[in-house]
Amino acid sequence: MANAGLIIRYFPNLTAQQKDQFNALFDLYKFWNDQINVVSRKDFEFFYERHVLHSLAIAKVIQFTDKSDILDVGTGGGFPGLPLAIMFPNARFHLVDSIGKKIKVVNEVKNAIGLTNLKAEHKRAEELKEKFDFVVSRAVTQMGDFLPWVEHKFKTKQQNGYPNGIFYLKGGDLTEELKGIKHYMEIIDLKDFFQEEFFETKKLVYVQMV
Asked: CA torsion, points 168, 206, 60, 63, in degrees to nearest 10?
């Protein structure tokens, strides 16, 4: 599917600008992906399902309030941060990745669709001094390894429906990976929101950090 019909089906209240921005993503990522491999080429035909809609699962669980600050760690080509920045134009998104060429693509896409609430940097999370309401990520590593990267990155003041913390997209059986984590957690099945087979084993893990 080369247009955002799938996104509009699950999020019918998008503005005309948001629809235009989502529709523009396929051709932009196709152009850049042919030069710099930021999205798996073998499943690019499922771009909206496996990358954009997957990212937006977070928007089914939380509505980020205006001026919320969200950090996307290991964003790769901009997921989940860039689709979320389209979805929440009044929240602020900071995307980081240790691979500079991927951040170049994020910035090119951001500029092409006129996203003004997104900043993308070639950095590691540990280098950042700022504090955030939430950290989001798509399965960059095991949760036990991920937590030390971000544990001091959270504001104490809260302004959202969930206490400040992590929203982590991951697939499969997470029992072993999460059993040593001492923070309060929720594990949310994405098949509860999306009917496509891809989401059968996909989860969203929320970890409270304050």
From this structure: -110
Q: State how many domains the chain has.
A: 1
| Domain span including residue 140 | 5-208
Q: Which residue has the tokens 């932009």?
A: 28
Q: Phi/psi of residue 144, each to 5°?
A: -60, -30
DSSP character for 95?
Answer: E
pTM of the model: 0.97
The CATH number covering residue 196 comes to 3.40.50.150
| Three-state secondary structure string covering 35-97 | CCCCCCHHHHHHHHHHHHHHHHHHHHHCCCCCCCEEEEECCCCCCCHHHHHHHCCCCEEEEEE
Q: How many CB atoms lie within 10 A of CB 8?
A: 16
The mean pLDDT values, 10 residues at a time, for the chain of 210 residues are 90 98 97 92 92 98 98 97 98 97 97 98 95 95 93 97 98 90 96 97 97
The CA distance from 148 to 162, in Å, is 21
